[in-house]
Design a protein that fits this description.
Blueprint: H1 8-27, H2 30-37, H3 41-47, H4 51-78, H5 82-106, H6 108-117, H7 122-145, H8 157-171, H9 173-176, H10 181-203
Helix pairs in contact: 1-2, 1-4, 1-6, 4-5, 4-6, 4-7, 7-8
């Protein structure tokens, strides 16, 4: 069976990644991928129902991994008591972003596919998904921080979602613009400082 040919799955994945990166989703050819991998299109169809399923399989490790990383980091922060949250939220965030940057550069090609080559709204769906996770956890923290603020000064969930969406879209600009690791670290640090100043202004500290 084709699925038992040693190394074929890895060859197909490598050739598919290269084909999508070079030509984008619309112009990528399953025939060219099969030829590159030294196999047939039927062997590809055994593994993937169509070109979009193949593309989604390529980017899934990056998508699921960053989602799990974000959930784990934010849930860890939520598990602290209120006093700890108030006193070290900046430091906790500082600790989490190196791991995110490390993950992005481990799966740089996959994120490049997602951000630049994906069909339809796939990239927007990814940003929406991680923004929803971030918004959910952020709202819990903001309720804690704004307990003594007047109602008119409290931040609504819709605003938090917009800010979160814009922030993560900004983070993944490092992929879109092919920044090297050092450039990305400096850029994301500046991006975070910019957003943190806004939150500090809202809370008056």
């Amino acid at each position: 069976m084709a699925s038992r040919v040693e190394g074929l799955d890895e060859k197909i994945i490598a050739c598919a990644k290269n084909e999508f990166l070079q030509k984008g989703f619309a112009d990528a050819s399953l025939r060219a991928i099969a030829q590159c991998a030294g196999t047939s299109t039927s062997a590809i169809y055994i593994r993937y129902a169509d070109k979009e399923k193949m593309f989604r399989a390529l980017v899934e490790p990056a998508v699921s991994g960053v989602r799990e990383l974000l959930e784990r980091s934010l849930s860890g922060f939520d598990a602290q008591d209120d006093a700890a949250k108030k006193s070290n939220y900046g430091e906790y965030s500082d600790e989490g972003f190196p791991a995110l940057i490390e993950f992005i550069y481990r799966y740089f090609d996959e994120f490049k596919l997602l951000a630049v080559c994906a069909p339809g709204n796939m990239y927007q769906e990814f940003l929406e998904e991680i923004s929803k996770i971030d918004t959910q956890h952020t709202m819990g923290f903001l309720k804690l921080m704004s307990r003594n603020l007047p109602t008119s000064a409290k931040v609504k969930e819709g605003f938090v979602h917009v800010v979160s969406s814009a922030f993560y879209a900004g983070v993944f600009e490092v992929v879109i613009h092919d920044m090297n690791r050092e450039e990305a670290e400096e850029y994301i640090s500046q991006l975070r400082r910019f957003y943190n100043c806004g939150w500090k202004d809202i809370f008056g500290n």
